[in-house]
Amino acid sequence: MKFIFITFALLFSCCSLSFCQTQPSKAPETDWELYSPGAFPEGWILPIDRVVAAYGQVKNLYLVGDFNVTAAGQNRCVLRNKDYPTFRFVVDFPKGILPPKEKMLITRTALQPFLVTSVKPQPNGDINVYLKEIIE
Questions:
Q1: How far apart, in Å, are the Cα atoms of 67 and each of 24, 45, 87, 103, 119?
Q2: 65 close to 48: Cβ distance less than 8 angstroms
Q3: The domain containing residue 53 runs over which residues?
Q4: Model pTM above 0.90
């Protein structure tokens, strides 16, 4: 009985949440590492209104919110948010994962955020935010 308890305790400690959270899976057909929902590398998860100020302050910055797909291609789509009309979100998708179709409404939560790769203010006041899909 002691042996079973010790084995269970050892197994549980080896597969703790912090250990399991950063185990990426890279399928052969994708371009970068993908993660299970909620199991991506540690970073800041922020809504749209805070992402510009936080960009560059942390290694991994993640974006959550509600978005409308305004354009879609083979491996990329453009998103907008009705509350932030000056923001344009350009999302890259790895090979093997199709982007959402134009006119779809998508919601990203803390379990399935986008990874922010770049924030570029434009001369006209608009802000382009470049993102990557990292959830499989």
A1: 26, 16, 11, 10, 17
A2: yes
A3: 2-133
A4: no
CA distance 102 to 126: 21
Please state, as a whole number, how many other Cβ atoms lie within 10 Å of the Cβ of residue 111.
13
Task: Please state the rounded mean pLDDT for residues 71-83.
Answer: 96
Predicted confidence (pLDDT) per residue in 24-39, tens digit: 444 445 678 999 999 9
Amino acid sitting at position 10: L
Are residues 116 and 133 in contact, defined by beta-carbon separation less than 8 angstroms? no
**pLDDT confidence of residue 29:** 57
* CATH at residue 101: 2.40.50.110
The string of pLDDT tens digits covering residues 96-108 is 899 999 999 999 9
The H helix count followed by the E strand count for the chain is 3, 7
Total count of domains within the chain: 1
- 120 has which bridge partners? 128
**What tokens were used for 17?**
């949440």
Largest CA distance in the chain: 70
CA dihedral 62, 66, 69, 75 (to 10 degrees): 20
